[in-house]
């Protein structure tokens, strides 16, 4: 590409943002679309409940393992190139699932899909490297909000497809969106000029994979195997040991896959801690609200909605996130991103506390969902901007990748504990969870959001992200002037 043509490409941030949003949305949809389809998969594919849950577990495992590794490769070899590879692998996984005739093939396809988890950190890196400085915070906010929007929309879309078509259409729709995003990325998204010169830390990557695999497998199978079973406790113990080995190894490697010194920065570790709590809160709602809406009226508290109807209850929450993300970026530009994170966590905590005591009306649940959407949208965007603000440009991919993992870990724990609370007490001969289980689960989710609010006090008070990026640009200009002198 000639310099003039490259200049034209870089002058189209709105087009690039639309492409990145489509890429992020395709991945976010895949996270939750499978949840409403699990009963149909068990029937259509002859799968047991334990086997079908691996469709969730394996996606989470491969996504968490690949996200920081591909984020690091993006920092090293070009974010646009690695984003294209991630989309290609994600699309391949969707195709395998769409053509699969057995649950084992579906599990394989979901494992391949999960490798596309680096889409979010790569998109953040491209925005930071390519966009005009004044557009960076709001653009990162919009991409961040697609994580929540896609999660809610995935439940809605899956209900429509399963109720009116069939399970494979979930994956065909995912493949279609991914194909469009991949072609548009190849054609229109410019390659980032920011690179880090480093060697691939294969040993660190292997250890990180083992840490995440043992920890997340223990969390994901806690309900099925029993939280105090030997298998689960053994996995947690192995995770702890491997984590210590990983940290010690990374401290001694010249080019670590994750810079431990960087992770020790208060602005980084505190934001990652907040990500765990916010992820916990968000995925708790994705389990609780649809199940409550679909619960039979015979339970005395349920509304007996179809899968599609239960998904529609989440529409107000998903829609408001579309505006909350960019608003978080605006607030972060003016006042620093700690403020929208605190506002988001407080909003989510208030919403879940209300749901704990007032979930007897489907209208009330939908309206309170708006408050949930505001909270999650503000918080997700703020966390991404906080990480971008705290790290050098050449490690944006891996740093935001780690933050994405923390959010996923929180989500996995939140979903599993919510499910445990619902099944701990039952009524009518074990046919339905007791209503007290929903009350306790919503209250626990509110506590998670309150923890995120408390963590914001640990995040350093800093300048707005725009001031940070302006300062980086000034430092780069000063270095250039000195080199010319």
Q: How much helicity do the residues have?
A: over 70%
Instruction: Give the count of helical stretches.
Output: 21
Number of structural units classed as domains: 2
The CATH class designation of the largest domain is Mainly Alpha
Low-confidence stretches: 1-9
Helical/strand content category: mainly alpha
Which radius of gyration do the C-alpha atoms yield? 22 Å
pLDDT averaged over residues = 82
Instruction: Please provide the count of β strands.
Output: 2
CATH superfamily of the largest domain: MFS general substrate transporter like domains
Structure write-up:
With 485 residues, this protein is mostly helical. It has two domains: 10-200 and 257-484, Growth Hormone, Chain: A, CATH 1.20.1250.20; 201-256. It has helices spanning 3-10, 13-44, 49-52, 54-77, 79-99, 103-114, 119-130, 136-164, 168-188, 202-220, 222-225, 230-252, 260-263, 266-294, 307-313, 315-335, 338-357, 362-390, 396-424, 435-455, 465-484, and strands at 426-427, 432-433. A two-stranded antiparallel sheet has the order 1-2. Helix 4 packs antiparallel against helix 5 (79-99), helix 4 (54-77) packs parallel to helix 7 and helix 14 (266-294) crosses helix 15. It is globular, with a radius of gyration of 22 Å. Residues 1-9 have low confidence and may be disordered.
């Amino acid at each position: 590409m000639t310099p003039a043509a490259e200049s034209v490409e870089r002058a189209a941030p709105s087009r690039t943002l639309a492409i990145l949003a489509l890429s992020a949305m395709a991945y976010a949809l895949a996270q939750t679309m499978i949840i409403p389809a699990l009963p149909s998969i068990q029937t259509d594919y002859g799968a047991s409940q334990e086997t079908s849950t691996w469709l969730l577990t394996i996606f989470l495992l491969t996504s968490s393992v690949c996200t920081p590794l591909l984020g690091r490769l993006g920092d090293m070899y070009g974010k646009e190139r690695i984003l294209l590879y991630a989309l290609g692998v994600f699309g391949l996984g969707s195709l395998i699932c769409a053509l699969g005739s057995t649950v084992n093939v579906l599990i394989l396809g979901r494992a391949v899909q999960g490798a596309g988890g680096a889409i979010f950190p790569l998109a953040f890196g491209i925005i930071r490297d390519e966009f005009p400085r004044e557009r960076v915070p709001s653009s990162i906010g919009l991409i961040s909000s697609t994580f929540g929007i896609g999660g809610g929309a995935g439940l809605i879309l899956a209900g429509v497809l399963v109720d009116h078509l069939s399970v494979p259409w979930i994956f065909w729709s995912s493949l279609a969106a991914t194909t469009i995003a991949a072609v548009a990325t190849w054609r229109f998204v410019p390659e980032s000029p920011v690179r880090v010169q480093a060697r691939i830390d294969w040993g660190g990557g292997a250890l990180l994979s083992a840490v995440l695999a043992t920890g997340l497998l223990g969390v994901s199978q806690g309900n099925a195997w029993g939280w105090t079973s030997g298998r689960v406790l053994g996995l947690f113990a192995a995770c702890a040991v491997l984590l210590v080995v990983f940290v010690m190894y990374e401290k001694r490697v010249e080019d670590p896959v994750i810079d431990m010194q960087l992770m020790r920065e208060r602005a980084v570790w505190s934001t990652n801690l907040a990500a765990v709590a916010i992820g916990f809160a968000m995925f708790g709602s994705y389990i609780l609200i649809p199940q409550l809406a679909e619960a039979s009226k015979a339970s005395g508290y349920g509304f007996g909605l179809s899968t599609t109807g239960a998904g529609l209850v989440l529409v107000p929450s998903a829609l408001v996130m579309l505006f909350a993300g960019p608003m978080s970026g605006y607030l972060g530009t003016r006042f620093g991103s700690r403020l929208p994170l605190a506002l988001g966590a407080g909003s989510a905590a208030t919403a879940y506390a209300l749901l704990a005591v007032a979930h007897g009306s489907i209208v009330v649940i939908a309206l309170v969902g708006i408050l949930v959407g505001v909270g999650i949208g503000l918080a997700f965007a703020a966390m991404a901007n906080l990480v971008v603000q705290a790290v050098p440009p050449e490690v944006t991919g891996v740093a935001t990748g780690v933050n994405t993992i923390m959010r996923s870990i929180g989500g996995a724990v939140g979903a599993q504990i919510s499910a445990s609370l619902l099944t701990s007490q039952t009524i009518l001969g074990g046919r339905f969870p007791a209503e007290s289980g929903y009350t306790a689960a919503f209250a626990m989710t509110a506590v998670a959001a309150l923890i995120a609010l408390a963590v914001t006090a640990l995040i350093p008070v800093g300048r707005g992200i725009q001031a940070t990026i302006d300062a980086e640009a000034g430092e780069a200009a000063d270095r250039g002037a000195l080199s010319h002198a």
